[in-house]
Amino acid sequence: MRREHFGPPWARGGRAEPPPAEDAPAWIAGALPDDWFAGRPDITVDRDEIVIVGRLTEPTLDAEATEAEKSAAEAGRIASFREATRDRRIGIAQQLEHRYRRKVAWGATCGGRQELFTTFAAPAMTRLRQPERQVLDTLVDAGVARSRSEALAWCVRLVGEHADAWLGQLRDAMGAVDELRRQGPEL
Questions:
Q1: Torsion angle, CA of 21/27/29/30, rounded to 10 degrees?
Q2: Domain ranges of the chain
Q3: pTM above 0.85?
Q4: What kind and span of H or E run contains 139?
Q5: What is the pLDDT at residue 11?
Q6: What HEC string does 51-100 produce?
Q7: What is the mean pLDDT of each run of 10 residues along the chain (187 residues)?
Q8: CA 47 to centroid of chain Cα atoms
Q9: Exposed/middle/buried for 186, CB within 10 Å: 0-12, 13-18, 19+?
């Protein structure tokens, strides 16, 4: 006799994988108002979160504007966008979360400034041996991080910044493997 399981995934002893989201960028492009961004937004999808970052048009300033004034104008443009679009962004995010079972974060880029709104921080459990724990403890003791968790996040960001090209090649290779799996062998 087959036993049915009800309730959240964590009550069943595991984490359910979210549905595929290959079509999420197209769905988002269709849901976004055309006048929000200058061009198509950058969309990043992983198993926990969808991040949508759009480029805003730069404010018009005098030719003599200082860097500080430009930065303030860009910050103002992003803040204005965030406030003016809040209700609509929440509605789109709710639809996305229901469809793809992932949290949704928004962001905007204006000139040289980028801001992300309410991003999701996913816990990552890991087992570390003493040498790895000592690295984290050194970062905490030196004041680089407040906790081992923050130190680990710092290390991951550092590797991401310095190994970006290699990580991109690795992601491309994994995508090719996924495509080959979907195609299957010719019989």
A1: 180
A2: 22-122, 123-187
A3: no
A4: helix 130-141
A5: 46
A6: EEEEECCCCCCCCCCCHHHHHHHHHHHHHHHHHHHHHHHHHHHHHHHHHH
A7: 51 68 94 95 92 95 90 96 96 96 95 89 82 90 90 89 83 86 80
A8: 10
A9: exposed
